[in-house]
TrEMBL record:
InterPro entries: TM_pro_TauE-like, TSUP. Its main location: membrane. The chain crosses the membrane at residues 20-51, 85-104, 110-129, 149-175, 187-208, 215-234, 240-257. Keywords: Cell membrane, Membrane, Transmembrane, Transmembrane helix, Transport. It comes from Nannocystis pusilla. It is found in: Cell membrane. It is a multi-pass membrane protein. Belongs to the 4-toluene sulfonate uptake permease (TSUP) (TC 2.A.102) family. This is Probable membrane transporter protein. Pfam families: TauE.
């Protein structure tokens, strides 16, 4: 059974903690929709608010699910979503994500804590020093083949296990490997994360690792952030996505390295 808001939290005042969670959800949802890396904000905050790494990892998925539903619906209504690409890539992504989530529920906090820290620092290094590779598409789009499905499965395993930063390799796959424009690639990324998260949430819930009160607060903020991010992207187009990625790479990289 999950404990109530513990006295050793980052903010012992429940109202202040709840407000911070909602606001962080807005920021995280906006970042996830425009570029990726919202979990770089959410995971450390949840751990700082008293959750164990495993419960924080699981609880964040409810916010990701709410964020993805709001953003994907907004993209679909404005016909910015490449549904064919999402349908082709959903199978391997979901298979990998279910495996990753299962592994996460069986990983102890003593192991998961350094894994989270190490992965976030590794992402900082990759994104700071090699960000351009994922923004350069080949001359013509190409249909996904075996390599793309293998990459999607591996990305799914990572997303199911940890989630943080999963949008970056997805954008790299859709843009630099498959040749889609940045706007549609980002919309497809959001939709795919929503699809596999709807499955892995059940895995984490069955393991009793979701703190539902905090998850609900996070979901409120991330729903708003997802809708706002999708609207901004549709109005501003690919340049906004490109700049959002560059800024997020720099900010998250500096924060994680410092």
């Amino acid at each position: 059974m999950l404990a109530p808001w513990p006295p050793g939290d980052l903010l012992a005042d429940p109202f202040a903690g709840a407000t911070l969670l909602v606001l962080a959800g807005v920021v995280g949802g906006l970042l996830n929709t425009l570029a990726g890396g919202g979990s770089f904000v959410i995971l450390p905050l949840l751990i700082g608010l008293g959750l164990s790494p495993g419960v924080a990892n699981a609880t964040s998925r409810i916010g990701v699910l709410a964020n993805g539903s709001a953003a994907a619906l907004t993209f679909a209504r404005d016909r910015a979503l490449h549904t064919g690409l999402v349908a082709r890539m959903a199978g391997p992504m979901c298979a990998g994500a279910l495996l990753g989530a299962w592994l996460a529920t069986r990983t102890s906090d003593a192991v998961l804590r350094p894994v989270i820290g190490g992965v976030l620092i590794a992402w900082a290094l990759v994104l700071v020093f090699r960000p351009g590779r994922m923004l350069t598409p080949p001359p013509e789009p190409r249909p996904p083949g075996v390599p793309a499905f293998v990459f999607a499965t591996l990305i799914g395993v990572y997303g199911g296990f940890l989630q943080a930063g999963v949008g970056f390799p997805l954008i790299a796959l859709f843009v630099s490997h498959l040749g889609h424009d940045l706007l549609r690639a980002n919309a497809a990324k959001v939709a795919l994360v929503f699809v596999y998260t709807s499955l892995v949430v059940a895995v984490f819930a069955a393991a009793g690792q979701i703190d539902w009160p905090r998850a609900g607060l996070l979901a409120i903020g991330m729903t708003l952030g997802g809708w706002l991010g999708a609207r901004l992207q549709i109005r501003a187009g690919a340049p906004l996505v490109r700049w959002a990625i560059v800024v997020m790479v720099g900010v998250s990289g500096a924060a994680l390295l410092l």
